[in-house]
Amino acid sequence: MSTPALELTGLKKSFGKAEIIRGIDLSIGKAERHAIIGPNGAGKSTLFNLITARFPPTSGTVKLHGESLAGLEPFQINRKGLSRSFQITNIFPKMTVFENVRCALLWPQGYKYSFWNLVNYKRDLTEGADAILEQINLLERRDLPAGTLSYAEQRALEIGITIAGGANVIMLDEPTAGMSNTETDYITDLILKVTEGKTLIMVEHDMSVVFGLADRISVLVYGEIIATGKPADVRADPRVQEAYLGAALEAEH
Amino acid sequence: MTDQITTDPSKPSQRMRAGSMTITVLPWVAGAIALAVMPAIFTSNSALTIMNQMWITVVFALAYNMLLGQGGMLSFGHAVYAGVGGFACMHIMNMSDFFAAMPLPVLPIFGGLFGMGMAMIVGSFSTRNAGTVFAMISLGVGELIAACSVIIVAFFGGEEGISGDRTYAMPFFGNEFLQQIDVYYLTSFWVLVSAILMYLWSRTPVGRMANAVRDNPERAEFLGYSARWVRFYSFTASGFFAGVAGGLFAINYEILTEENLNTASSGVILLVTFLGGVGFFFGPIIGAIAFTLLQTVLSLQTELWAFYAGVLFLATVMFFPGGLAGLLMMHVPVFKLGHARSLVMPYLKTLLPAAIGLLGLAALVEMTFHFRHAALGDDEMTVFWTTFDTHTILPWIIAGVVTLVGLGIARATAPSLKEAWSAANTAPPVTTAKGGAA
User: CA-to-CA distance for B310 and B319, rounded, in angstroms?
Assistant: First the structure.
C-alpha cells in the first residue's frame, strides 16, 4: 500500500490533568473522504487542532504523506499541502469576497512575500480567484465585503478559501453547522464537487451529510476512536450504536 | 481548462483591470500638478515653510498608516525611525567629503535606509505579536531611544541636537538649494515618489497579506503566510518611509534634536493619521494637511490651538472613527445614487448653525483664557475681529447666546438631517466595496 495521506500514531493531548485525546491511531488514504463523528466534547475539534498545529500534542506523531509534522508552524504545514476550515467561520470579513479567495492563492502560486508584483495585474491570480468563486457560486458577490454575506455564503466562502490553494488534504470542521436543510444540501454538493480526487477529513454532526459524503467513518468518544470503517459497518457496530449513533439515528427517525 | 485567452468585456476581472488604470493614475497626476502649482498660489516664504512641513508630515503619516491602517499595528514610538533617519542624514551632511560628492536630492534615501535598519532591529522582536504587546514594545523602545539621545551624545548630539548645512552638497544641476522654493520642489518630489511607492506596496502580495493578517492572523497562517513575517515586512517598509520623512526634515530644518524622536512626536503622528482616517490610503494625507494647518495657521491666531486639536481628535475618535477620509467616503454612495443635491439644504440648516454655535463656544473659551491669564489691567481682547472688555458682562452674554442659539438650532434640525441622509442613501443595496480595501 502507498503511504497514507495522513497518519496519526499514539496522538495524545492533555490540558492540565484533563486528558482530551487519549491515544489516537488513524491512517487516512489518498483521495479518501473520511468523517470523524462523535458526541459533543469527544475531542473532535481538538484532534483537528492537533493535526494542524494550532496546539502542540502532548505525545504522538502526525505524518502528512509520510513526513512528520512535529515542530512545524501552521503556515509551514499549510505549505506542505494541508488546508483547513474552522468550526466558527474564519474569513477576512473586511476584505471583499474576491480578495479573500485571492489571498488564498498568493502563496501556492509562488508570490510569497514579494513586493515587486502588483496583484491587480496578475492574470493568473484574478482568473484563478474568479474560477474558485464560480465553483462556489459566489461570483455575484465578488466585490462585497465578506462580512456582509449570509451565513451559508460565508461558510461556502470559507470552503473556497480552504480549497483555493490546491491543497491535496482538506480538513473541514463542521461545514454544515447551524444550517437549514437546503443550505446543508447545497454545502454537501459543494464539498463533493470541490474535493474530487482529494483527501477529505471532516468533523460533522449531521448524519445525513456524513453518510452521504464519507468513504470511511471514525467514531471518537472521550478522546478515543472506538470504531473505524465503512459507513455501513460503523452503523452496524453495537458499540457505536450504544455510544452515539443509536441515539442520533433514533432522533432522526 | 483551455489556454485560449478571450477578452470578454463583460467578465468582471477584465472590467476591473481596464477600469483600474484610469482610476489609479488620475489622482497621482492631479496630485503632481497640485504640488507643482502650489508655490505659484502661495508665494510667501512662510507659506512654503508650512507646505514643506505639511508634505513631510504626509510622508510620515502615510508610513505610519502602513502599520496602523494596513497592518493593524498600533505603534507609540514611530518617531524613532523618522528621527534615526533624520539624525543619520545630519551626520552625512557633516561628512564634508562624502556629502560634497552627493547631490542633495539623494540624501532622503539614506534617511530611509537608516530608518529601515532601525526598524529591522526592533521589528525582529516586536512584530511577533500585534495588539497590546506590540503597542507596549513600541512605547518602550520609543522611550529607550529618546533616553539614548542624552547618553549617546556622539550620534544624537545631546540636548542641542545635531545641525548641519545642506548647501555643502554637490550642486544638483547647478542648484545648491539655498532658496526655500528649491527645497520645496525637492520635498514635493519625494512626497510624490514615496506616496506612489507606498500605494503600490499596498497592492503587492505582501501588502495584501498585511490586510489579511490585520483582519485575521490565524486564517492567514492557514493560507501559508507567517503572520509574524508579514508584520515584519510591513514594519521594515514603514521604517524606510519614516526614515525618508526624517531625511526630508533634516534637509528642511538643518537641525535634529531629541524632540524629533520622543514619544510626543510619536503621539502627534498617531493623531494626524487617525484624524485623517486609517481605513483609506489617502486618509493620512488629509490628516497631515489638516493638522499642519491647525498647527501653523491656527497657532498664529490662538495660544489654545492644541486644545482645539485635542477636541477635534476626541470628536473624531468618538463620532467619526473613519476619520476625515471616512467622512468624505461616506458620501460616495449618495453621489452614486444621484441624491447629493437633496442633502445640500439639510446640511446648511444643521451645520451652519452648528458652526456658529461652536465659534461662540470657542469665543467663550478664549474669553475665559484671557480673563484668567491676561496681564493685570489688560482687560481688552480681540476675538473674531471684535475688540471688547472681558471684564464687562455684555460680551459674555452675547457669546453665550450665540452658542446656545447656534447649537440649539443645530439640535432641532438634526433629526430632519438624519431623515434626509437615510432618504439619500435609500436605494437598492449599495455595492461599493472598493476603496475600503486600502
Answer: 14
CA angle B120, B121, B123 (to 5 degrees): 60
* DSSP strand pairing (A6-15 vs A59-64): antiparallel
Q: Determine the 3-state secondary structure of A35 from DSSP.
A: strand
| Cα of B315 to nearest chain A Cα, Å | 24
Q: For chain B, give the percent of residues with pLDDT over 90.
A: 53
pTM of this prediction exceeds 0.80: yes
pLDDT (0 to 100) of residue B430:
45
C-alpha cell at B363: 469665543
| CA distance linking residue B287 with residue B53, whole number of Å | 13
Greatest alpha-carbon span in chain A: 61
Do residues B104 and B190 lie in contact, with contact meaning Cβ atoms separated by under 8 Å? no
Rounded to a whole number of angstroms, the distance from the CA of B145 to the nearest CA of chain A is: 29
**Cβ within 8 Å, pair B212-A103:** yes
How high does pLDDT run on average in chain B? 87
CB–CB contact B208 A114 (8 Å): no
What lies within 8 Å, CB to CB, of A111 at 6+ separation is: A117, A119, A122, A125, B205
Q: Which of residues 227-256 of B touch A (CB under 8 A)?
A: 227, 229-230, 233, 237
Query: What is the reported pLDDT for B16?
Result: 44
Confidence band, pLDDT 50/70/90 cuts, at residue A250: low
pLDDT (tens digit per residue) in B201-226: 999 999 999 999 999 999 999 999 99
User: Based on the number of CB atoms within 10 Å of its own CB, is B229 exposed (0-12), middle (13-18) or buried (19 or more)?
Assistant: middle
